[in-house]
């Protein structure tokens, strides 16, 4: 049995057939997820499709052929973003939906592909029911969302909104020493063409992305889908505690400048700060280097990184200030020097109240309790949301596992997601 058959069988086993209605076909969604799972398949049942690789390109080719079969006019921009367009019957406005088909090394089969296949399933459903949208509709595959190759990510969406930076492109090389320019040329495009991928956004009325939750909130509440109220933008900060090395046996406790003690005091303070600023704020210290890192040496220096996120930019920035203050206080208390340096600050996206309420309405329409969720991870919707109104719908993830072959979403939940998104888009089509 091939990987594809395994995934198809696994998906369709236990699927609630009654969900295949209104032109939406669970079997087709399962077939498509399975077909994509074959491209760059790993031995563990996951996929490896880095941005701008042959595998990502092949996955786009497959989706392109589905887009053409469903009657979409397909184009590709200089950044490799694939756009399938259906002309509206009346109003000169466009609703866009999509996601990505690249993956992290040995990633899962749902992160990205589900959003692309779902956006296309809406078109398939319209074709079957004879629904003609008043506004134009586009299905988009964004290039290199994960950023595995150059460590930046969201490359395609950044190029589309004209916010791709030098830092994310020409300054970096991949693990084989290839520059972004070389990689993009081997892919069949060019650096000038990537810059030209910036598109006019005036006609885009809305961007909507369906994505797996990559968390456990929906599973814990036993609901299939949830409306995303915001996407948290991270701030990364390097904090260094500089003390003095000394012999662990010969230095009295009150005569030390122990950078580790100062750092641990700080780490504890950071864990208590986010909730003082916002219900949705989080802060994480996930990386720490100790110098000289010896069993019997008082640590001279500790370097650590803090990842700080919230959907509310002002509250997040206040939290960042409080964290800097906590670092300084720990330094003073333990007689060590402290430096803080911000290395990244990404603007969060707060979903417009009206769009959020419309998404919740579409969830209620399906007979489910509408839940609001925050996205801790960045998505193409976050980038698109800087230029146009953007909404997101999360679908339940098994145990919250993602970026791993174990990533799983039941087909019934996938299909419920498509129903909700289709309803949300159709209602938006009717709004003037
Ligand atoms: Zn994703």
Q: Report the mean per-residue pLDDT as an integer.
A: 94
Globular, elongated, flat, extended or rod-shaped: what is the shape? elongated
Q: Can you identify the CATH class of the largest domain? A: Alpha Beta
| Backbone structural class | alpha/beta
The appropriate CATH architecture of the largest domain is 3-Layer(aba) Sandwich
CATH superfamily of the largest domain: Zn peptidases
How many strand elements?
Answer: 15
Compute the gyration radius: what is it? 24 Å
Ligands and ions found: zinc ion
Oligomer: single chain
In sequence order, what are the helices and strands, one letter per element? Answer: HHHEEEHEHHHEHEEEHHEEEHEEHEHEH
Examine the coordinates and then state which fold CATH places here, giving the name of the CATH topology of the largest domain.
Aminopeptidase
pLDDT < 50 stretches: none
Number of domains: 2
What is the end-to-end distance? 51 Å
Largest beta-sheet details: 9 strands, mixed
Strand content: 15-25%
Helical amount among residues, as a percent range? 25-40%
3D architecture notes:
There is one protein chain. This protein has two domains: 3-232 and 348-430, Zn peptidases (Aminopeptidase); 233-345, Alpha-Beta Plaits (2-Layer Sandwich). The chain is built from 14 helices and 15 strands. It has helices at 3-12, 26-37, 54-69, 113-129, 155-161, 180-187, 191-195, 217-221, 259-272, 274-277, 313-333, 353-365, 380-384, 411-430, and strands at residues 73-76, 82-86, 94-100, 136-142, 204-212, 225-231, 233-242, 246-247, 282-291, 297-298, 301-310, 337-345, 349-350, 372-375, 390-395. With 432 residues, it is an alpha/beta fold. Helix 9 packs antiparallel against helix 11 (313-333). Bound molecules: zinc ion.
